[in-house]
Each structure stands twice: as structure tokens, then as C-alpha cells.
Design brief:
Elements lengths: L10 H6 L5 H6 L1 H15 L13 E4 L2 H14 L7 E4 L13 E6 L5 H12 L3 E6 L4 H8 L3 E4 L10 H14 L7 H17 L10 H9 L2 E7 L2 H16 L6 E4 L28 E8 L5 H16 L4 E5 L5 H22 L8 H11 L1
Parallel strand pairs: 1-2, 1-3, 3-4, 4-5, 6-7, 6-8, 8-9
Length: about 375
Amino acid sequence: MTFVAERLDDQSHLTEGDPGRMLLAVAASAAQVRTGHRAALEAGVERLSSLGRPRAIVIVGMGGSAIAGDILAAVAGHGAPLPIITVRSYRLPGWVGATDLVIAVSCSGATEETLSAATEAVRRGCAFVAVGQADSPLEAIARQASGLFVPVPATGQPRANVWLLTIPLISAAAALGLLQADEALYENVAKSLEDIAHRCRPSSESFINPGKTLAAELAESVPMIWGSSQVASVAGYRLACQLNENAKYPAIFGDLPEANHNQVVALDGPLAERDIFADDAARTLRLVMLRDVDEHPQVAKRREASVRLAHDRGVPVTELSADGVHPLERMASLIGLGDFATTYLALGYDIDPTPVTAITELKARISQ
């Protein structure tokens, strides 16, 4: 299977090769921000202010739903006055109890791991909020527990609804006084995503399209993706997952400074070697560095040194910078570009970006 860059400027291929319309779903990210905010308001998320501050916020979810919890924690940042953690499992940690707020997120409202953890949260007497499909098992759990349920009109794959699932969590945290978020912020985020969608639109040719350019850089490489802040690291993890699911492509994720204590040694390994005389392009390592303005000074030094180290060894480097003032804006700038790039990478390999056949088969096997 070979990546053909010319496919990305073939409009008929981009349409026929994407029957699940993943490109259109990514382009609708701005609308998701506005819809998610409206759904949270209509569900009465502001009522959470009467609960008082919980001891901790625990988000339970899987895959494209769980990333909403990671985004919330990164947006709240190091200044958050309480722990915000994401649990990707059937079970809650033993310490979670009645003084904690559990937020269950499931695009379908029927994810078995999430339902299991949500049921456990209700049994332990936790304050409970759920975000997901209306008339779903998750809604039933929330209603029975007298918890808050935010119905979202999700369609397609969970990973294609990331903003629809994330914004209600941001609104909930704002209601609890944990971060600042208002109409102006959501509109700024939506406009940023609209700008990315315009610049990455299918009709925009590769030489000026940042999504297609990034896809071509990632092609025929093994991306080692590092983030230099909480925001950049969550966006980096999202990029790795999108490479897996959209492009069916492997990726290595790490963040600084931890990656400097293990993954950096891969720059001296067999995948870092490049044979410029080889007839066929070999898949070699590429360092993908996601950077942000909110970097610890020592992390900034490590990022710069890591890039120089890669260049010195002939390992290609891609650097992506977050854009915006608020952490949610900066997150959107990185995730929006990555979502387009991974979809274009799939199409460059003539892969349909929507299906996740291996996941479907795995679910079928464990249900037998």
C-alpha cells in the first residue's frame, strides 16, 4: 500500500474514497462547539453551581469520548483547585466516593465500560453528570440517579464528535467556578475551527493546504509525537489516536519531559537510519513536536534540544505550534489541523477513514 500525494488534489477521489464523509464531519467542528454549548445550557448545566466544589472530578469514557476528559483537565490546567482525571475502564478507583463528581461521556450512550463505571458511581453516591445520546442506557442511569443528563445529537463515529462531547464538560467546569468560559470564548473557538476548515478544505491544493501538507510529511514515516505542555500533550495524544483510527496508521505518543528519559533513545535506533540510495522509500522515524506558549522554561529547553538532536541524526522533524490565547482555543488549533491531516493521510493511501473494522471484529469476538 503506497501513499500517492496526487490523490489529495483529486476531487473525485476525495469524494468517492470517503463514503462515510469524515472530511465533512471534521469540517463541522465549529458547529459542534455551538451545538454542544447550547445543549449544555438547555440541560441546565448551570445548576451544578449549587452543588459546591467536589473533592475531585472523574470523567469516565472510552476512545473518542474519553478524550473530552483529557481536554477538560488540560484547559483547567495546573491551577485547577482539585484533581481532574479520566478513567478508561470498567471500574472506578477505590478512592472515588460521595464527595466526588463523576461525569460519564459516551457518544452512543451504550459503551459497556462507561455504563459499568457509571453504575458504580451511582452506587457509591457520587454526584453524577452524563453526556451522550438521548434515549440511551446512559440517560436511563442518569435519570434514575437524579443526575444531570446532557443529550447531544451525535452522528457517525465518536471521534468525529469530539467538540460536541467536550463543550458540555467545559460548561460544567465553568458552572462550578473551576475555569472561565463564556459565549465569547466558545465563539472564538468555533471561528478558529472554521478558519482551519477553510484552509484545509478539499478544494484547496496541497501546496497551500496545511492539512494535506502535514499528511504528506507523515506518510511513509513512523511518527513519534511529543507535546510540550498539557494542551500540546493532549493534542498529541489525540493526533496519535486519529492516526490509528482514521488512517489505520501506527504512531508513538509521548510528552516532555518524560519522553526525554526513554523515547529519545529511539533517535539512535534502526528506524532512525535513512538510506538515501534505496530504491523504495523505507518507513523511518519522524519526530512530530507539538509546542505551546504555556511551557515550563526547562521543557522549552528540552524541546529545542530534542529538535536539534533529531536534526543532527538526520531524523526529519515536524513542528506544530498552538495558536490562540485561551487554552481551549490553542487546543482547537492543534486538534483541528490533526483531524484533517489524518483524514487526508488515509485518503492518500486509498483507505476509507471512517470504518474501524478491527474494533468491530474485536467487540464481536468478546461478545460470543
